[in-house]
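Consider the following input, taken from an annotated entry for RHH-type rel operon transcriptional repressor/antitoxin RelB (Caballeronia pedi).
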Amino acid sequence: MRRTAENKLKVVAVRVDPQFEQRLRLLAEVTGRKQSFFLQQMIENGIGALEETWLPADVLEQVRSGALPVRDESVGTADLFGDEA
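Applying the prediction step yields:
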């Protein structure tokens, strides 16, 4: 798929325990793949379970139907570290 402005991948920064970073680095080195590949796999394969756990039923229904709720990107939300997004 050719990347355009509409489907451009986004960069997300996350802090992880050094032990997880070491495991991820080892996985990448041994397999010859990039760490970002495995992070993408974890996100793509695990986001559904997180959505089921954390999203209200009405929002989850919208997500599953493909009608993602429109979010105002100018409004920041605190991340896990208390920083504004």
